[in-house]
Amino acid sequence: MSPQRPITPQHVAFIMDGNGRWAKQRLLPRAAGHAKGASQVRKVIENCVARGISHVTLYAFSTENWARPSDEVSALMGLFLKYLRGEVADMRENGIRLRVLGDISAFSTEIQAAVRDAEESTAHNSRLSLHVAANYGGRNELLGAMKAWMKANPGAPPEALDAAGIEAYLYTKDLPAPDLLIRTGGECRLSNFLLWQTAYTELYFTDALWPDFDAAALDKALIWFKGRERRFGKTSEQVQL
Ligand code: FPP
Q: Residues enclosing ligand 1, CB less than 6 A?
């Protein structure tokens, strides 16, 4: 097997889509779908740990999700706070490091404090790094990185800006790029998620709704990933050398 035939992805990113439809199928309010989706997060993380994946990034709330009905936004905020407070002790004990990617200043002071507490109390862990993208948008992240670079390099000519210059100011600056992105819920798009970081990520789309995304569904995605040839712009012949 060539080194370009990956075995287990180091970093898996998830777009957790389909909570609303899961609820609708059961004649439940959308918030019930998100609650089920939030409980599924724990199982997916456990399954990722068991499979030796070392980084997981979850798209929990986008910069565009503020435009949803206010009761749904409130329900998502409540679930995020509950998750942060309820899972931190188990994360600490199970070697999971939690970090939030995104502009958390838009959240309530309670959520901001819970984020800081969860990040600080799991900072020493290294078994699996869990990155929760919250109030995250790829375009905002890129714009912010370019502005930050310009502020750090006043008067620099445009030619001085390179890829490393941008990466240094992304939320993901010290993370490997995702090897595999899994989107549940049947849509085949990135929806403003990790636009820079997914340049060479393998993209996997499944019709399974997020609350139904169980161990078997993860294994199916990992088997698909094993069959990919990662060429990073080279030819098949080159990477098989
Ligand atoms: C998309 O499904 C899902 C979201 C916008 C929110 C995802 C949030 C969670 C799973 C719970 C909170 C997260 C954590 C980390 C505790 P959708 O509502 O667009 O579903 P639909 O397409 O079926 O309507």
A: 16-21, 34, 37-38, 41, 58, 60, 65, 76, 79-80, 83, 132, 185, 210
